[in-house]
Structures are given as structure tokens and as C-alpha cells.
Amino acid sequence: MKIAVRLALALGALALAAPAAAQQQQQARPQIGFGISIVPLEVAGQVPTVEVYLPIRIAPQFRVEPSLGIFSRDQAGTLPDTRDVTLGIGGFWMAPVAAQVDLYAGGRLKLNFAHESSPAGSTSDTDVSIAAALGGEYYLVPHFSLGLEGQLGYYSHGTVNGDDSGFFTTGVAFLRLYFK
User: Fold this and answer.
1) In this structure, are residues 149 and 134 in contact, taking their beta carbons and an 8 Å threshold?
2) What does the alpha-carbon distance between residue 139 and residue 35 come to, in Å, rounded to a whole number?
3) What are the structural domains of the chain?
4) Three-state SS sequence of the chain
5) At CA 137, angle to CA 68 and CA 64, rounded to 5?
6) Is the pTM higher than 0.85?
7) Hey, which end of the chain has fewer CB within 10 Å, N or C?
């Protein structure tokens, strides 16, 4: 009987320690950082905009991630020059799954301010995309991580980028450096 009581107490202590360890591990994660995205695939024959991210953990299980991307292409002759500035925001629920791994799920909203100029004139408009995102982040060291994210979303382009809309899927890799 004493062995059964001891076993029950040990299992109860273990059951209570696991969530506490996961919460302690998550609170130990850095709170603010800087990241860069790596999009390995070209989109419709164009080189994608490289974006920088500012991951901010505002609660132990929630992170916001504003982003900024700038793209510029100058072309010779009568071909148009292009300028894109992309502003975005993401919100994610975070869950630690191992000592060095977090999973996250949430969404991203992006506005792309596109401008095209040629000798014939110039055009400006705004593109919009909204996407559900699911990803993971592996901490190589406590303040540096490598992340992968899959997105399923909807886009609407203005005349500068094709005047179309539709659904998309994409994969993105991230490098993130955390400060505190």
C-alpha cells in the first residue's frame, strides 16, 4: 500500500512539474529581437522583397511581429522602374514543444505600396495580403533561432503588380536574433 501511495505522489508531482517546466522555459525565452526572412522561391518571375521583422513577445504565449520590406528595381531604357515598400503585422500564439523548439500559429496582414515610373508616366497603388501562418522556431543558442513558416492566404494586387487577386501558399525561412 505504501508503494502505491508513493507512486501516486511521484506521478502527481511529475504531472505538476511538466507544465511548470514548460511555462518556466517559455518565460525564459527572449522578449524582443530582429529577424530577416528568406523566401527561396521567386514569385511570378520577380525576386521577392526581403523583409525585416521585429518579434516582440508581449505575453508568455503571444508574440506580435511587425515587418518592413523595401524593394527597388531600376531598369534601363523604356522599361519601368519599380519601388515597393511593404508594411506588415503578424500575431502568433506560441507553444514550447522542446527545450530548443517553439511552435506558433496565427496570421499576417501586409500592405505593399507599389510605385512604377517610366518615361510615359508613373502609377502607384496598394497591394494587400492576409494569410494564416503555422511555423516553428529552433533556438540554435538562447538568442539566435532558425524558423520555418507555411502560409495560406489571399492577395489583391493593384495595376502595378498585375491587377489580380487570388489565393496563395508559400513557405518562408527566418533568421532571428533576440536581444532580451
Assistant:
1) yes
2) 13
3) 2-178 (2.40.160.20)
4) CHHHHHHHHHHHHHHHHHHHHHHHHHHCCCCEEEEEEECCCCECCECCCCEEECCEEEECCEEECCEEEEEEECCCCCCCEEEEEEEEEEEEEEEEEECCEEEEEEEEEEEEEEEEEECCEEEEEEEEEEEEEEEEEEEEECCEEEEEEEEEEEEECCCCCCCCEEEEEEEEEEEEEECC
5) 40
6) no
7) N
β-partners of residue 178 are 33
Query: Bridge-partner residues for 172, per DSSP?
Result: 149
Q: What is the number of other CB atoms lying within 10 angstroms of the CB of residue 60?
A: 16
Rounded to whole angstroms, how far apart are CA atoms 28 and 116?
Answer: 46
**CA 39 vs CA 10, 43, 100, 123, 159: distances in Å:** 48, 9, 23, 27, 24
